[in-house]
Write a structure and sequence with these properties.
By secondary structure, this protein is an alpha/beta fold. Helices cover about 30% and strands about 25% of the residues. InterPro entries: LRR_dom_sf (IPR032675).
């Protein structure tokens, strides 16, 4: 469907069983859709739509402004064309695009007490933490003392916490560390749930949740009961195992998967559980991908991003993925990158970064600093020094493990760890190590400290005493 300036569309808000109206406008970035402040049970007439004012966006920490969507998102929602009218307003020079999900969040925000909304941005807020079962009186007092808090972290799940969440619309985010075989949040107002699952078999969601993150072993999770079969949900899985088969999310469109070195992700399992994906992001963090050809089973796939993932040499063809608009391959096998480039180099958004040859993988796959090689902003010389620092330290510590125990061994190991840190002190003097790089160096240091059998207290002391970046 072609759009032009002034076009008015009605789009169904499925969670609310209502329509919102949007008008196509011309902005500096191109055509955008301005959301209008009119929510109706049926699409408005052209005369009614042309009189609407902009819908404003200011929930939580957002500064007040007009609400804009990308035209692709409007068209993907199968809108009803109302007609064409004069532009209701002129977009500012800097337009920030939101998502339809943000409309739901704004509407829920607008239903909160006015004094809460007015004072929220300047009020003191903290994440509430629950470590043991509490009484109803405790939760009532918690709500009175913390009227602006919207997120909670809990090690327990019981009826009192469930009732508190159901009665407190301000509480929209939950991180849950302890769950039995089943979890039911259907009576809550939660919008985001992070679940550390191990042994959970069944989850029942509410109608307002838009983001579900599950960490840990998902092999026992068999069913997720969700309104609209997951169509309006975004799911993130942080896997500790490769196999899973989940019922109930057959219409899921957006999936993110994180794995780790030594684990694998089976795309055949993914396709069996989520056959209607539009977007898939996988960061295997050095893990492997099985059944790459199963990508072709996603008949509506538009967006694929594979990062730090290995174990495959080919890639599906253009004919197998006819709707693909974006394909990013970052640190993936070189042969698969070349196959993908031959098929998809002329799509709307295609990028290959850090293609890895078999020789490179053989030498560097176990190196936690492998991501420095080819990274934008990191010179080849700096990446080489960083990766070599880990390789050298690992070799030295491994060699010491084979030697008989003696008093001087602990000192030798400590000196090797210090030498490793010193390499990065020197790099920082020229390169200026950023936060992400510092975290990667720390991860590498922890692996070396574990190999050196250094306890946590000594490990922290060595780092704090010697790291200057």
């Amino acid at each position: 469907m072609e759009t032009k300036i002034g076009d008015l569309f009605a789009v169904k808000l499925k969670r609310r069983d209502a329509y919102f109206t949007a008008q196509i406008l011309s902005a500096q970035m191109g055509l955008v859709a301005l959301v209008l402040d009119g929510f109706t049970s049926v699409p408005p007439s052209l005369k009614e739509a042309a009189k609407l004012k902009p819908f404003y966006f200011d929930h939580h920490f957002w500064e007040r402004g007009e609400f804009y969507l990308g035209t692709d998102e409007i068209l993907d929602a199968k809108p009803v064309f109302i007609g064409n009218a004069a532009s209701i307003c002129e977009p500012s020079e800097c337009v920030s695009l939101q998502s339809i999900e943000q409309i739901y969040m704004q509407l829920a925000w607008n239903e909160l007490p006015k004094d809460i909304r007015a004072k929220f941005k300047s009020a003191r807020k903290k994440k509430l933490e629950i470590s043991q079962p509490q009484s109803r009186e405790f939760y009532a007092d918690l709500a009175r003392k913390n009227p602006f808090c919207y997120e909670i972290k809990s090690k327990i799940w019981d009826e009192n916490l469930k009732d508190f969440l159901g009665a407190t619309p301000m509480m929209t985010q939950l991180e849950l560390n302890c769950v039995g075989k089943s979890l039911d949040i259907s009576r809550t107002r939660l919008q985001q749930l992070v679940l550390h699952a191990s042994g959970t078999e069944e989850i029942t969601l509410n109608g307002s949740l838009w983001r579900l993150a599950i960490n840990g072993d998902t092999s026992r999770l068999k069913s997720v009961r969700c309104p609209f079969d997951g169509e309006l949900l975004s799911v993130q899985l942080e896997l500790n195992g490769g196999e899973f088969c989940i019922r109930g999310l057959e219409k899921l469109r957006d999936l993110r998967i994180f794995s780790q070195r030594g684990e694998y992700i089976d795309l055949a399992c993914v396709a069996a559980s989520f056959p209607n994906l539009r977007e898939i992001f996988i960061n295997a963090q050095g893990g492997t991908l099985k059944n790459i050809d199963a990508l072709a089973k996603f008949k509506h796939l538009k967006d694929v991003w594979l990062s730090d993932v290995y174990g495959f040499e080919r890639f599906p063809t253009r004919a197998q993925l006819p709707h693909l608009k974006r394909l990013w391959l970052w640190s993936a096998p070189k042969s698969a990158c070349e196959a993908a480039r031959a098929q998809f180099k002329d799509i709307e958004n295609f990028a290959v970064r850090q293609p890895r040859s078999k020789q490179w993988l053989a030498a560097n796959l176990n190196n936690p600093l492998r991501g420095w090689d080819g990274r934008e902003g990191v010179s080849a010389a700096t990446a080489k020094k960083a990766m070599k620092a880990y390789i050298d330290a690992h070799k030295k510590l491994s060699a010491l493990e084979a030697k008989p125990a003696r008093d001087e061994l602990k000192t030798e190991k400590t000196e090797i760890l210090k030498e490793f840190i010193a390499v990065f002190n020197a790099i920082d003097a020229k390169h200026s190590i950023d936060t992400m790089e510092r975290e990667e160096i720390w991860e590498a240091f922890c692996k070396l400290a574990e190999l050196a059998a250094v306890d946590a207290k000594a490990q922290d002391a060595i780092w704090e005493t010697n790291a200057e970046f």
